[in-house]
């Protein structure tokens, strides 16, 4: 019998059964379909060996006028500006206490109780102490006069910190007079806490104010407490940053990375600057600062559907007047603003159930709003991204695209994603563009995880879907920097860099659906597989990259693969043409079979072509 070519449709399809998907792929891990054929995705390496505190939820890259290359990194604990691999802490200051702090120590403990009236801190906040003198032999001035993270809050006037030394019996006193404390803005939650009363947030956890509660105790939050998310954008070479549902801050590049961001409303000439917001952006076309989910002028009350914008080219003037272009708009549908995404022509504005277009129309109205779609959903404040004038986003149980009109994207892995999804942590979903490969990535938490541990990819060039496992909490496409950057485990990673997982081997695999011979009634015997694979792109230290082909047979669609045979394809030469294992001998019987290709070694890159198998009718023995 002649050899049979195994030609498969591109992409993964999990919306139908494996048997019904004959001629397609059914499962994958760290594989993409860029040229209609599967290939291993690129690897990643640490951008820097330095770490930051907290889980990064937002990244923003820009170039200053002096060609300084900055990356804004917003975590649930701090805000950093990265330059040259160093993370510079520019987290704004909330409060400065002067001559008001005292300490008490316990013999044999490194935990101190700090007294400061109406400190306003929550657990995990950061405070920098100065002006203290030694408490004794161990708790010296140098131990006290540094930045500390608050471990717990005792009450409104005291809290606890853990220092770098253990107190002895000599460590008494209050640390001297004139002790100052500089408090950074309150940290945010890293896990969404929902509901109230007994059992809210699980068996033991944190309240919305970040105080702890134990097993069976009531959480104090009455509504869902959101995780700390950030938005940020440039005003010239300077930076505007906004912790969601917090104030707007301003970092002045001319003051350097050693200075912290300050309240935008504290700048000279500030006029009616919003004091609370869900998102801030700078409209590139017309140079307005646009604030979403802002407070109304003259109050501190947040309106979740209110959009306010400052006067054109102004950093601080938000007072509407006939002589400027400041003003406001209110979204007419939905209960809250979720996300705004800027394209080349407009700003798309999402509420929890509607989509609007916001366009610059000039004086006297400055901006106009048009409702584009009702009854759409959006998963999180970071789940939509733009590619030129096209916007992609993840909804509650569907994926969407806007190309002039909003519509669902046909998704062949929809059930695979949404039936294994932790919706209680949906705010953590983050979308990113990988423009080199025409891909949209969504990182999300699976049902048994409280952190993003999986991804799903839509290739908008060939309209295919694929997925895998990876822990990433934020993403930034390449552009100013050579590689796309992903955040995870307190590091930034350069993606599409090499073939490995930060120096360790990466497992990549692709598995087909079942393949019948004839009508699937007769048994078949497979004795040979002729690989069609290229190892082009494997790193130079991999002299003979390998990948394993596995054929599995089964006797019926509902039975397991009970007959398996594997063989390895190895590259043996690269010139004058690439040579690899010519023939893999296998021995397999069954009514149907599938094929799996997997690589597990360091440095390996591969692309699968059209393998062939020697199949012939056979009796069952």
Q: Do you know the CATH topology of the largest domain?
A: Methylamine Dehydrogenase, Chain H
- Please state the overall shape, judged from the principal axes of the Cα atoms: globular
Total strands: 54
Low-confidence stretches: 195-223
Question: What is the alpha-carbon Rg in Å?
Answer: 29 Å
Q: For the report, how would you describe the main beta sheet?
A: 7 strands, antiparallel
Task: Tell me, rounded to a whole number, the average pLDDT.
Answer: 91
State the helix count.
2
CATH architectural arrangement of the largest domain: 7 Propeller
Structural class: mainly beta
Share in β-strands: 35-45%
N-to-C span: 20 Å
Tally of distinct domains: 3
Using the coordinates above, name the CATH class of the largest domain. Mainly Beta
- The residue fraction in helices comes out at under 10%
**Superfamily (CATH H level) name of the largest domain:** YVTN repeat-like/Quinoprotein amine dehydrogenase
């Amino acid at each position: 019998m002649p050899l049979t070519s195994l030609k498969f449709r591109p992409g993964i399809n999990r919306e139908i059964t494996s048997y019904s998907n004959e001629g397609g792929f059914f499962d994958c891990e760290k594989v993409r379909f860029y040229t209609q054929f599967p290939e291993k995705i690129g690897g990643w390496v640490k951008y820097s060996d330095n770490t930051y505190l907290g889980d990064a939820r937002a990244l923003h890259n820009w170039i200053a006028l002096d060609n300084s290359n900055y990356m804004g990194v917003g975590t649930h604990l701090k805000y950093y500006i990265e330059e040259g691999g160093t993370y510079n802490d520019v987290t704004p200051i909330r409060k400065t206490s002067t001559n008001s702090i005292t300490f008490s120590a316990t013999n044999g403990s490194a935990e101190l109780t700090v007294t400061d009236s109406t400190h306003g801190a929550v657990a995990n906040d950061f405070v920098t102490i100065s002006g203290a003198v030694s408490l004794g032999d161990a708790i010296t001035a140098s131990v006290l006069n540094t930045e500390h993270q608050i471990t717990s809050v005792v009450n409104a006037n005291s809290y606890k910190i853990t220092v770098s030394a253990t107190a002895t019996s000599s460590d008494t006193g209050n640390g001297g007079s004139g002790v100052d404390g500089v408090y950074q803005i309150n940290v945010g939650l890293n896990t969404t806490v929902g509901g109230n009363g007994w059992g809210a947030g699980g068996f033991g956890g944190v309240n919305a104010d970040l105080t702890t509660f134990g097993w069976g105790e009531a959480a104090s939050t009455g509504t869902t407490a959101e995780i700390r998310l950030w938005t940020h954008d440039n005003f010239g070479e300077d930076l505007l940053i906004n912790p969601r549902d917090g104030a707007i801050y301003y970092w002045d590049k001319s003051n350097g990375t050693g200075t912290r961001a300050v309240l935008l409303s504290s700048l000279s000439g500030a006029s009616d600057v919003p004091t609370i917001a869900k998102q801030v952006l700078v409209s590139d076309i017309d140079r307005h600062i646009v604030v979403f989910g802002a407070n109304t002028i003259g109050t501190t009350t947040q309106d979740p559907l209110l959009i306010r914008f400052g006067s054109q080219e102004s950093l601080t003037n938000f007072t509407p007047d006939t002589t400027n272009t400041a003003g406001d708009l209110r979204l007419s549908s939905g209960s809250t603003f979720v996300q705004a995404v800027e394209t080349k022509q407009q700003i798309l504005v999402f509420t929890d159930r509607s989509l609007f277009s916001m366009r610059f129309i000039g004086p006297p109205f400055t901006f106009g709003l048009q409702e584009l779609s009702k009854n759409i959903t959006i998963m999180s404040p970071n789940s939509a991204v733009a590619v030129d004038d096209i916007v992609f986003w993840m909804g509650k149980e569907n994926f969407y695209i806007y190309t002039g009109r909003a519509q669902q994207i046909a998704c062949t892995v929809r059930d695979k994603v949404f039936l294994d999804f932790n919706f209680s942590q949906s705010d953590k979903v983050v979308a990113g563009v990988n423009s080199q490969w025409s891909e949209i990535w969504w990182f999300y938490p699976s049902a048994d995880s409280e952190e993003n541990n999986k991804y799903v990819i839509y290739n908008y060039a060939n309209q295919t879907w694929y997925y895998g496992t990876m822990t990433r909490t934020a993403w930034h496409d390449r552009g100013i920097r050579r590689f796309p950057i992903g955040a995870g485990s307190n590091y930034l990673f350069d993606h599409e860099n090499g073939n490995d997982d930060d120096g360790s081997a990466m497992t990549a695999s692709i598995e087909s659906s079942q393949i019948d011979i004839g009508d699937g009634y007769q048994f078949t015997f497979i004795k040979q597989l002729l690989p069609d694979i290229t190892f082009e792109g494997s790193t130079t230290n991999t002299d003979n990259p390998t990948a394993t082909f596995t054929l599995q047979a089964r006797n019926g669609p509902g039975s397991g693969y009970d007959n398996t045979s594997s063989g390895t394809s190895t590259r043996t030469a690269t010139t004058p043409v690439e040579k690899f294992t010519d023939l893999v001998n296998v021995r397999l019987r069954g009514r149907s079979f599938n094929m799996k290709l997997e690589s597990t070694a360091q440095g390996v890159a591969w692309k699968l072509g059209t393998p062939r198998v020697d199949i012939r009718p056979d009796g069952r023995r």
